[in-house]
Amino acid sequence: MQTRPHNVITLKRALETAETGRFAIGSFSPRYTPMIAAVLEAGQRAASPLIVQISQKELARYGITPAEFGETFYAEANARNITVPVVLHLDHTKEMGTIIEAIDAGFTSVMIDASEKPFAENAAISKEAADYAHARGVSVEAELGMIGTTDFVETDKDEELYTDPREAAEFVRLTGVDALAVSCGTAHGVYNVRQPKIDYDRLSAIRALTPVHLVLHGGSGVPAEMMRQAFRLPGGGVSKVNIATDLELSLLAALGREERMTNAECKALSPDRLALGREAVTRTVLEKIEGFVCSANEAGRFVL
Prior knowledge:
- This protein is of the alpha/beta class.
- It has a single domain, classed as Aldolase class I (TIM Barrel, Alpha-Beta Barrel).
- Helices cover 44% and strands 15% of the residues.
- The protein contains 12 helices and 10 strands.
- It has helices spanning 11-21, 36-46, 56-62, 66-79, 96-104, 119-134, 165-175, 200-209, 224-231, 245-255, 263-267, 271-291; strands at 25-28, 50-54, 86-93, 109-112, 139-144, 148-149, 179-182, 187-188, 213-216, 238-243.
- Helix 2 links the parallel strand 1 (25-28) and strand 2 (50-54).
- Residues 148-159 and 188-194 have low confidence and may be disordered.
- Zn(2+) 2 binds at residues 113, 143.
C-alpha cells in the first residue's frame, strides 16, 4: 500500500468541489506509464484538479499491472512535487480481483462496470464493490445504461442503451455508489461516422432524481461547447469527463507512429523521444483543462 500524499484525494471529495464550482474534472488516461508524468505536469501548470485513470482493458492491452501504474503515479507525483488535487482512478473494471489489486496499489477510486448485466445483477455487483471500497476509504463509480464505443479499447461492445432516470435513482439507492456513469449520447473512442450528441433533458432528469455525481465517458472528440453545457446544467450536471483516446493520438502523432505500442515499447523509447511524446500529451491535457472541462485555476478551491 502506498503512503498517500495529502493532495491525492478520493473521487467523491473531488467531485463535490467540482459540482459546487460548476466545472468538470478531466479524467485522463495516459495508457502508458511514462505518460503519467505528462498528465500530472499539465495539471500542475494549469493549477487544475486532475483524475489520472486506467481501465482493466487498458491494463491488459498495454501490459501493465495496477501495482506498476500506482507505483509510477506516486513516484512521479513525488518527484515532480505535484501539489494540485489528484485522484488515482481505476476505470471500467469487470473483476473484483482487479479492484482489490488497485486498492492495494493506492488507487483512491475504482469503477465497477456491470452495465451489461440485468439491472438487479448490476446493482448487486456494484454494491459488493462499493461495500469493499468504502470500507477502505476508496470511492466507487458504477455504470447504468450502456455507453457505446468506436474503438473497443475501453469496452467490448458498441451497443448503446440510454440510462433511465428512474432506474438511476433506484440503482444509487441500492448500491451506495459515489458516482454514476450515464449513457446519454457520447461514445468511447474516435467519432468517425456517428457524431456525438448529449441528451441534456435526460441528464437533467437523472440529476434531479439522483444525489450522486454524474460522469460522462467518451469525452474525446465531443465539441467543447457541448461539454460545457453538460456540466453547467441547473442543479448540477456532469462533474467528471473521461478523456483517453485524444491523449494517445497526440502521443503517436508526435512520435510519427500510427500503431499503438505496448507499455514496454513506450518505456524503451529514447529519452529524447519520450520527452517529445510527453510534451505532446501535456499540451493536449492543458487544452482539455483550459477549454473543455474549464478546471484551470480551480485547484485553490480545495482545502487539502
